[in-house]
Structure formats: C-alpha cells, structure tokens
C-alpha cells in the first residue's frame, strides 16, 4: 500500500506539470542551461569560460596563421625532421586546398576555438535577460559576451571570408549546419555586437583588469571600419578613445608588454590575453614555440632565465625575417627590444646565428611555463588607426601628429611624409615595426590588397637565397612554396564533412 501511494504521488506531481514537458528529463547531476543560469555568479562563470579559448588561440594558432603567414617571420628548417608539416605549409604559402577546403590542422583548430567562443557567448546572451540581478553587472557581463563574439567573428571573417553565422545556441543537428553568411553579413553583425558592447562595458578605470572594456570594444569596431575603409567612422571612435579613455603610451617601448608576473594590463594595454605562470593550467609557452632549435640548455638559459633550463630540438617557428629586420630605421629603439640573436652550436646551418623574438622572452621560473600576457590591442595601435583614418580623408597633416607620437617613443625623428600617398606608406611601414609579432601583418596585407605584390616578391627572395632564410646548406623550400597567395584560407575539411553548406 505504501509503495502504491508513493508511485501515485510521483505520478501526480508529473501530471500536474506542463503536459508537453512530461518526457523532458533534465539531469540534475550535469550542468545545463535549464538548471545552471539562475544567478549572477553563474553568468560570471560562463563569461569567464568564453575567454578561455583565447589562451590557446594566441599561444598556439594565431601567430601561425596571422604572423608567420607573412613576410615578418619564417621557420628554420630542420632537415632531420623529414616531411614538411602543417605549420611549414602556412609559412610557405603552400596550404593544400581543394574546392574551398583544407585539411591543415592550424586552420581547423583556429576555426573550432573561435566557434567555442561564439557558442559560449551565445549561451550567455540567450539566457541573461531571463534572470534578475543588478543592471550594472548584467550590462557588463553582456558587454563582455558581445565583445568576445565580435572578436571571434572578426578573426573568422578575416581568415575565411565566409563562415556560418550562429547567433543563438545550437540545440540539435538541424540548426548546427547553417549556410555560409556573406562577408557583409558578418561585418554587420560584428558592428552591431561591438557597438552594443561599447555602450554596455565599463571603461578601463572601472573595469576589472584583464576584462574587455568600452575602449577595447571601440578599438575593435574601429578596426572593422578601417578594414571596410569607413574612415570617418574610425576617426570618430579613435578620437573618442584618445580623448576619453585614459590610455597612454608607456615611456619605454619595452614596458608596453607584460612580464611573466608584473606589468600586466598596463596603461597602454587596450586588451590582452591573460596568462599565469605556474601549475594552475593558465600558463603559456610562446617563447618555447618561437626559440630557434636545436638549442642547448646553456644556450637557452640566458634567454629564459629558468633554474631548470632544458635543451629543445624541435623545428623552429616565427623566426624574424631579414626583411623585417631591415625594415627598422637606424636608431629605432624597438629593434633591440623586439629582436635579439642566439648562436646554436648544434645547428645544421652554416651560419649558426639566428634572430629570435625577444619581446616575448621574459624571464620565468620553470622551463616551458610562462605567464606574460599577449597584446591584442595597444594604445600605440589606436594612434596608428587614427593616423590612417585621418590620412585617408586627406587630413595628412593631422595624421602626422599621431604617427609622430609613436615614432618619438621609438627614438625616431618626425615623419617626412607630407603627401597622402607618402603618408599612407609611412603608416603602413610604422605598423610593421611597432606591431611586429603581434599578429597584425597578414591582416594589413589583405585589407590593403597587397598580398600578391609583397608576398610574391618575398617568396622570390626566399627561393633565390634559402640560406639567408635559415635553411641548412643544400636545403631549399618545397616546389609548391609561395604558390597559394589567396587572401583567405580554405575552410576546414573536417568541418566540411559535417555540413552540406561548404
């Protein structure tokens, strides 16, 4: 009798619920949107999760696809490794592509990580207005989610041109495979998200360090406008940031970048990716991916400063090219801060001396475990964006004012450019050296339409003199090097197998 009563009681509760939800079972032991998003702390945790893929993107992929895929950096071939790998294909402008798709793993991982950000931001945005908590906190969290979604889509559209535009959480297979949105549709969504974020987010003075700010959203939006050649809109935004957002150029260029535990999110930083040295899992290891190899423990110790220095033997990536090194003017203080050299006793190259990226070689405690942050936007770029926007509207004299602020810190004289075309080239060159190794060069080449011109000539130089570009004696680039000079990467083949839309 007792058992019958309990069963009837449970059945009565179930039947008293909405009939259409009778068979909807929500597992109470697993997090889901139905039971998780109930309070402010849940949304704080979810927004934190939307930032997480940025650490892997900037530690592992963005520099491959956006910096080494340019004339700024190259790889140092180790012939003992045999076959050419996916990263070398990117550096060689030889990414195998057919019918608009590629099997290159760098492309696949970047694509997936950006969509992780999109998916997590979408979940926050779909749920946050259903829960009541303080408006200021809610707006700040919404602003961060919108900024992160805009940043992810800005990467995707610049890398691929057309991608699916997901704006709500995917609930099943039927809405997982969306058609490709046009570039213009994606631009429009980025603009909307970044605009909304700029009004919802706190400014740098009030925001928790490391989180997106209103200034970061305005800078992202200005970057979009400059890509679209909407110069007047970009000028307005950047003047607003210069006048109202409290950023400054650090007096010393070296101090514009974080150390492994200090100087993070400084007054020049508009937005940077957060890393933390140690065992918690928030660390990076960029310098170990960039350092020339094979390198002995004795050779690497002065660069990393670790107590347990260890040799490395991997192939070497993101090595500054002779072309970039030559782009620095005499007396430019940034050159010695950004680039140094190391001699590798075990190198197969006749000239055993290699340049390496010094600006990320910050001393730290443990081998292969670093904590310096990665700059996404700095105030120096705000000034260069403003100079470019002004010059493209014929305001060349005013543009020089902002360009010269960047040059003055570098120890250089004021620009001599007075004509619009000369100023355009001066700003283009200044961006190259000021923002070297910050993943800007490839996008500068594509948005200015100069890929074939600049990379074509660069590839010819590599082929003509491989030894100057770090190849051992007798080694040469592969036959297909510098044959694919497209503005966009092919979409990931693995993802293409899951959708009929590309």
* β-strand number: 9
Number of helical runs? 19
Low-confidence stretches: 1-26
Q: What structural class results from the helix and strand content?
A: mainly alpha
Let me know the largest β-sheet.
3 strands, mixed
Shape: globular
| Distance, first to last CA | 62 Å
What's the helical proportion of residues? 40-55%
List the secondary-structure elements in sequence, H or E.
Answer: HHHEHEEHHHHHEHHEHHEEEHHHHHEH
Which strands sit side by side, in order, in the main sheet?
2-3-9
Q: What is the typical, i.e. mean, pLDDT?
A: 93
Radius of gyration, in Å, reads: 25 Å
- Strand coverage percent: 5-15%
Give an overview of the whole structure.
There is one protein chain. By secondary structure, the protein is mostly helical. Helices cover 48% and strands 7% of the residues. It is built from 19 helices and nine strands. Helix 3 (40-66) runs antiparallel to helix 5, helix 7 (183-200) runs antiparallel to helix 8 and helix 8 (214-227) runs antiparallel to helix 9. This is RagB/SusD family nutrient uptake outer membrane protein. It is found in: Cell outer membrane. It comes from Spirosoma soli.
